[in-house]
Amino acid sequence: MRTPPVILAINALLEHIHATYPEVRVFHEDRPDIPHGAEVWHPSKHQIDLVVTLGGDGTILHASSLFSSGAVPPVLSFSMGTLGFLLPFHIDDFAKALGSVFQGKATILNRMRLACTFFNQNLAKKKNDNNDWQVMNEIALHRGSSPHLNTIDIYVDGQHLTEAVSDGLIVSTPTGSTAYSLSAGGPIVHPSLSALVLTPICPRSLSFRPLVFPSSSSITLRIGDRSRAPAGVSMDGRTSHVLQPGESVTVQASPYPVPSINRSSISDEDGSHGSGLSSSKEGAGPGKEDDWVRDINNLLQYNATFRSKALLRHSRT
């Protein structure tokens, strides 16, 4: 459900596009609240050149899922006040950001996606899965509501790595390394790298540590025949499958990444960068490169001390 500020922002964005770029057609996914000035998007009929999102990180994940069977157009993401790793621009900067894109000044960070293929006990591709599932953050296998642990055999490039007894397993992209995988104890991986991150969820063995594989690797997760629980499958937070003992999923790098437009695409023509004025809101204050270091400090409070800012303020009074 869209809030009034989001509706106002969408209307302002559409008015600007129609006034400044009258030759541009704007499409919207088919849903009841299509804004005035946008046409219904039919994937089989309309080729998209640019995706614009307004909202949080989940909005970008949803946009990625709309292009699950092929290439993703460049994605221009605007924050509506929510902080997130995938939100380089604040909505107040939409005119400047669009201007840079249409002038060909945009810089792109290709965020890797995962292609997931599901197989039954006979190693045949599961029905109704004509295309590989594409995920931007992670695929997670978990025991769901079962009181029993999952037993999952892990194969890397066809070679058996280990039998995992745990609440589940996560295979994430570098982009997803700061999401569910991080909460489960996984490493933080820079999004410009191409890698697969394997992270256990509450493993029975204390020596089962997260692993990082090159993007050329293929990881197969097979529910063990002795597993007392099936494995629920969630991809980018969406429940998709339930794997029974003997069934499996193979995960590898997708040939279709998400081209994300960087905040460095906004040229610093007004000279405000470095003045301190542009650092007060998320997405503003572009530098010469995508400021991932600033993101992990601001969003994750990386290596922050245990004493909170509130306690520090209280100690000064």
TrEMBL record:
Residues 229-291 are annotated as: Disordered. The keyword Kinase applies. GO terms for biological process: NAD+ metabolic process; NADP+ biosynthetic process. Keywords: ATP-binding, Kinase, NAD, NADP, Nucleotide-binding, Transferase. Pfam families: NAD_kinase, NAD_kinase_C. InterPro entries: ATP-NAD_kinase_N, ATP-NAD_kinase_PpnK-typ_C, NAD/diacylglycerol_kinase_sf, NADK. Belongs to the NAD kinase family. HAMAP family: NAD_kinase (MF_00361). This is ATP-NAD kinase. It comes from Dendrothele bispora (strain CBS 962.96).
